[in-house]
Each structure stands twice: as C-alpha cells, then as structure tokens.
Design goal:
Blueprint: H1 3-20, E1 37-49, E2 58-68, E3 74-83, E4 89-109, E5 112-125, E6 128-140, E7 152-154, E8 160-164, E9 170-175
Antiparallel strand pairs: 1-2, 1-8, 1-9, 2-3, 3-4, 4-5, 5-6, 5-9, 6-7
Length: 176
C-alpha cells in the first residue's frame, strides 16, 4: 500500500474515532454538498456466507481507493482472507475493482459519506484472477441511510450476504 493510501486510511481511522467519542468532524472548507471526488475505505470488514455450500464461511476485507462519482473512474483494491466455518484458511488474495455498477449516496456525517456502491471486482489468488463478480457491494451507513441499511461488504453471487458488526470494522466514502 502506498504511503498516500496509508495516510488516507490513518485519517479515516482518526475521523471515525472522533465521531465515536462525540466530536463533530467539519467539512474542512469543502464548498459543495455533493462533491464528485471520493475516497473509499474498507477496514477489517467481515461478512459471513448465509446460504449454500459456504454457509458459515467468513470473508475479511481491507482496501482503499478513489473514484469520481460523475465519471465512474475508479482505482480501488484491497486484500481478503476467506476462512471456513471452523476457522481454517480457504483462500487469501487481493480484490481489484474493474468498474462501478451503481452508486446511491446517503449523504455525509462531516467528511464521512454513506451510500451503497456496487462494483465489478476480480478476486485474485496467487496472481491469477480466480473469480469475477459484478455485485461486490460496499455499504456505508454514514449520512442518512434508509431503514435496514447495514454497514459492510456483501457479495451475494458468492453467498456472502451477512455483514458482521464489531468494533473497528467499517466502510466509508471520504470527501477528497
């Protein structure tokens, strides 16, 4: 991970901490309510398979990137660890975004944005693309999410549909 991406991730953690302890994070001089440039942060996000052969398997995801909501240009990637229900390692590798399928924003809480971002993603193991999915869904519940929205990442086509909530696991769309 580049030092710029590490810095952005560190800033995201600091902002999330400030929100959790009750401080207000301002817009930092941003002059528009709907900026086009956003950063994506996926931090220790855990999701569980809830159907089929993979029921009970867990997928832990990390990642960062940036995209332009008006053009759809995106550069985002991260890592994943897939474990069986008993905790044994099934696979680990990298996820690489190949495109944006859709985005519905929920607004902002300070500089942290919410929304539902559906991506096309290659899951890469050992340098080779193992699986391509068009439903890698990142949901951030900052802003004003609809009732029932759950923070996390899901991949319905692979059966990973149940985000697991725990401390320090979050997704966010940051103003750039």
């Amino acid at each position: 991970m580049s030092s710029t991406k590490r810095s952005r991730t560190a800033v995201a953690f600091a902002m999330l901490f400030a929100l959790e302890v009750g401080f207000t994070v301002g817009h930092g001089g941003i002059g528009t309510a709907a900026p086009n440039e956003r950063d994506l942060v996926v931090s220790r996000t855990l999701t569980k398979a809830s159907a089929g052969q993979l029921t009970g398997n867990r997928l832990t995801l990390y990642g960062t990137g940036s995209w332009n909501t008006s053009t759809g240009d995106i550069d985002a990637r991260g890592t994943f660890v897939h474990r069986h229900q008993d905790g044994s390692l099934f696979a680990q590798g990298e996820w690489v975004v190949t495109g944006v399928e859709s985005f519905h924003g929920y607004g902002f809480t300070g500089d942290l944005g919410g929304g539902k971002l559906v991506l096309s993603v290659d899951l890469v193991v050992g340098g080779e693309t193992e699986v391509h999915v068009d439903d890698f869904t990142v949901t951030s519940t900052f802003g004003h999410p609809p009732s029932g929205a759950v923070q996390g990442v899901t991949i319905p086509s692979l059966g990973f549909t149940q985000p697991v909530q725990a401390a320090h696991r979050f997704t966010a769309f940051l103003l750039v």
